[in-house]
Amino acid sequence: MNADTLRGHMDALLLSVVEREPLHGYAIIEALRERSGGALDVPTGTVYPALRRLERAGYLAGEWAVAGGRKRRTYRLTDSGRAALAGERSAWKSFTTAIGSVLDPSR
Amino acid sequence: MNADTLRGHMDALLLSVVEREPLHGYAIIEALRERSGGALDVPTGTVYPALRRLERAGYLAGEWAVAGGRKRRTYRLTDSGRAALAGERSAWKSFTTAIGSVLDPSR
DNA sequence: GTCTATATGTAGACTCTCTATGTATTGAGG
DNA sequence: CCTCAATACATAGAGAGTCTACATATAGAC
C-alpha cells in the first residue's frame, strides 16, 4: 500500500478502529493490520502524530495508563469524533463512487 | 472532495480518462467532472503538472495541435500507460477492499 | 468593447505520510 | 546473566503531490 494512496484516509481508519473500544497506539497499528488482512501496515511515525492530531481536533480523548509495567496512551472516541467518523464514512462512499465511475473500463 | 483524499489516485483518473481517445488537458478536466457526476472538479494547477509527470514517466504521449485558433496539447495513452492503468485499477480494488474492511461499522 | 468560455502553464504554500532514529520495559531462550 | 524479540511511545527531517493564486492568450457572444 503506497504512501500517497492512503493519504487523507488515515483519520477515518483511526477513528473507525477505536469506535468499539478505546485502544492505544500500538494496538491500533495491530488492529489495522488484522482488519485489513495484512494490507495495512502503518508505521509508528505515521500513527502517533496522527493520533495527536486527532486528539487536538477533539475527535479522540487520550489518557495515560500502565499495563504490565509499560506506559500506554489509550485513545477513546469522543462524541465529536463519532460524528466525524460518520462524516468520513459518508465521504468514503462518495469518494469510491466518484473514482469508481471514472475508472470503470466499460465507459 | 478534499485535496488529500484524491492524492495518489490522480494518475489512475488521468490515465483512465484518455483510455478510449486522446484528450487535451482542458477536455480531461471536463471529462472528469462529467464522468464523476460533478464530484471531481480538479483545478488546472493539479492537472497540467500531473500530465507532464505522466508524460515524463512514459505513460502518456503529448502532442501539440491547433483547433479553432487555440493551441492544445493532446495526450495519448501509451502501451506502458495502458499497463500502468491496469495496475492502478487492480490497486484501486485492493485499496477499497482494505479500507472498506476497516471502515465497516458492523465489525 | 467587454465578458465568458476555452486553453495552458508556473510559483509557492501546505500538510500528510514516510524513513530513520531514539528511548525504555518485559519476558523468553540460552 | 545476557541477548534478543516484542511491546510501547515519540520526534526530526525528507519527500511528494495537490492546492491557491496568478499569468497569458484566443474565439465568440452580446
Automatic annotation (TrEMBL), chains A, B:
This is PadR family transcriptional regulator. Gene3D superfamilies: Winged helix-like DNA-binding domain superfamily/Winged helix DNA-binding domain. It comes from the Bacteria. InterPro entries: Metal_resp_DNA-bind_regulator, Tscrpt_reg_PadR_N, WH-like_DNA-bd_sf, WH_DNA-bd_sf. Residues 14-86 form the Transcription regulator PadR N-terminal domain. It comes from Planotetraspora mira. Signal peptide: none annotated.
